[in-house]
Amino acid sequence: GSIAADPIVEVENTDEDPIYAVYRWRPSSVSIPVVNGKYEITLKFAEMYYNEVNRRSFHVEVEGSRRLTEYDVFYQTKAKARAIERKYLYDIKDGKVDVRTLAGTYG
What is the average pLDDT score of the chain? Predict the structure, then answer.
């Protein structure tokens, strides 16, 4: 997926503003090597471009299972540049955490 970097802007609802300065906006995937075991996987989102609902939606798969469908960050946060997290528990058995995003209706 495409990756962009913006100057660090203030993001509401987080103390980790620099994380949101680099972001992806097209379908992408990442595979992170880990030691097998139980993990809480935290997905962090903020809509940094659009200022209204139904401009961007996407799906998220974690470890091959759909966790978010037609997810619209602006709809969830009701604001531009406001962070939101989604957390999931997984028992990793293949030595990697796989996360994939797919375009939604408003992709």
Answer: 92
Q: Which two tokens stand for residue 58?
A: 């996407």
When pLDDT is cut at 50, 70 and 90, the band that residue 3 belongs to is: low
pLDDT of residue 1: 55
Three-class DSSP category at 75: helix
Q: What local confidence, expressed as pLDDT, does residue 107 receive? A: 72
The DSSP annotation for the chain comes to: --EEE------BT-S-GGGGGEEE-S-EEEEEE--SEEEEEEEEE---S--SSSS--EEEEETTEEEEEEE-HHHHHSSTTB-EEEEEEEEE-SSEEEEEEEE-TT-
**Spacing of C-alpha 43 from chain mean position:** 5
Of the two residues 19 and 66, the one the predictor is more confident about is 66
